[in-house]
Amino acid sequence: MKNQMFYTGIPTQSVGPLxxxxxxxxxxxxxxxxxxxxxxxxxTTLFHSVGRGAKISRLAKTLTTTVLSDMMTRSILxxxxxSYQAKQVLLNCQSKIDYFQKHVVSKQSNHARLIQIDxxxxxxxxxxxxxxxxxxxxxxxxxxxxxxxxxxxxLTLYPTxxxxxxxxxxxxxxKVSSVNSILGRGKxxxxxxxxxxxxxxxxxxxxxxxxxxLNIKKNLIGSIASGGLLSANAHYANMLLAFYLATGQDxxxxxxxxxxxxxxxxxxxxxxxxVSLPNIIIGSVGHGKDxxxxxxxxxxxxxxxxxxxxxxxxxxxxxxxxxxxxxMAALTNTNELTQSHKRIERxxx
Length: 349
What we know:
349 residues; Alpha-Beta Plaits; ten-stranded mixed sheet; 27% strand
């Protein structure tokens, strides 16, 4: 009985439609897209909050998303004889990206492509951070398999190196860090919108000035005061987790995924509002996507083409923007958040 597979039901609802003026991929741009997006969460008031943000995207018609980079990483760890040898090995490996791709990576995967090698040396410890393009998969497994074989190749080239681990925590996987934001891991996406003043007043019941002021005092200064690490936002994790669960993702990746910065300002009376998410780890194919509900939700989003994973990442960023905007607007008004929660939760009982 204890080994029997069973499933836990999570409340799920499509929110939207979301209206994108532009979706900017790495290699193409799509204009004027409207779609509903699924969220799975026990925090069901989130459906209403994100839905309010989605309404703003339809009213303003200025929501754009931009993919800045797309790369999955794995960091292999060796111990050298001394720091000088570690430096020489790292420099040599960085000159062999094409060699590793041709002779190692291509034999492990038809989809992984090694594009970047970074490193860190601590004493005689050598952390080699390998960055890969992984197609429509999030890439956890294929990068681990490829990195394992690259480690074997490096040990052949440098027999005096000692193998320590295929993952040395410099990746960094499912942990809070600075390195992911700086060097990239997953998909770095920015979502931004310009909202006319009257839309802010009528649909969010606040003003551009109040939201911009709250963002400085709460998200920016408050995060500094708390010692937050690249997490100057109100609640990215809520929307990311709900979208990850609905689409069959490895939900633990919200740890690095929820790091990001909310930036907004008043421009000629309108509210410019943006969310920057440097580490969205998401795929449209791969492990977890064969669950019935995830399959149905992915099919509804039409993400099976060549750029499906980048589209998913842009939808995720847009959902984060919608939920972040709605919450920030509510927080500018005394008691609005608590009253809304009480009203919605009591209605559901």
